[in-house]
Write a structure and sequence with these properties.
The chain is α+β, with helices and mostly antiparallel strands. The protein is built from five helices and ten strands; from the N terminus they run E-E-E-E-E-E-H-E-H-E-E-E-H-H-H. The chain has a five-stranded mixed β-sheet. A three-stranded antiparallel β-sheet has the order 4-3-5. It has a two-stranded antiparallel sheet with strand order 9-10. Helix 3 crosses helix 5. It starts with 7 loop residues before the first strand and ends in a 14-residue tail after the last helix.
Length: about 200
């Protein structure tokens, strides 16, 4: 019996681009993902960084996509949840289309998927968070102050995250971070199409 794989892709914009971890990819990252409302707005649970997350109302930013090496949507969601260290109590923090587990559908991603003809798509759907409050969008000043207040290795890790993010992911908060902290994109942050 031959196992037939679905044509599943993952959308990414932050550290998944350089650190996919347990998310097994069947291709490199390609430009041309959907334009999504992104901002550096999540005090990460598992590392000291201000992660890029979906923020309704934020300007639309280009993203990337890659094929996922998974036989079905459940497997792709499970791999992405493991990579993002998402607790099983929050299945909505892994977005997918077709929608699963009550996850909200991101209209931009659904339209992009239909236009591309893939079978399914997954993405990280963590909400903004600051000062321990899930769903709370930090103000621009709070975001920059959070990063400015980090020290030592934690500051360096947060700095690397911002600098490693591709330069064209040019958000309002990123411009403020560059102006105040001088954290400009690394040359190797560029992502090019890979087979």
């Amino acid at each position: 019996m031959t196992l037939v794989y679905m044509n599943i892709v993952c959308i990414a914009w932050g550290s998944l681009l350089w650190k996919p971890g347990p998310l097994k990819l069947a291709s490199g990252w390609h430009p041309g993902g959907p334009l999504l409302p992104l901002e550096f707005a999540r005090d990460s649970d598992d590392s000291e960084e201000l992660a890029l997350v979906l923020c309704p109302g934020a300007p639309l930013i280009p993203t990337y996509w890659a094929y996922v090496d998974a036989p079905d949507l459940d497997a792709a969601r499970a791999m992405l949840a493991a990579r993002e260290k998402i607790h099983p109590g929050h299945p909505e923090w892994i977005g997918s289309f077709p929608a699963v587990d009550g996850a909200a559908v991101q209209p931009e991603i659904a339209a992009w998927l239909r236009a591309r003809g893939f079978d399914a798509v997954v993405w990280t759907a963590l909400p903004p968070k600051i000062a321990g409050t899930e769903g709370r969008m930090p103000s621009p000043a709070e975001a920059v102050d959070f990063l400015a207040g980090l020290e030592g290795e934690t500051r360096e890790a947060a700095r690397y995250y911002v600098r490693r993010t591709p330069a064209h992911i040019d958000t309002r908060y990123r411009r403020l971070i560059e102006a105040r902290l001088g954290w400009r994109p690394l040359h190797e942050a560029a992502v090019t199409r890979m087979a």
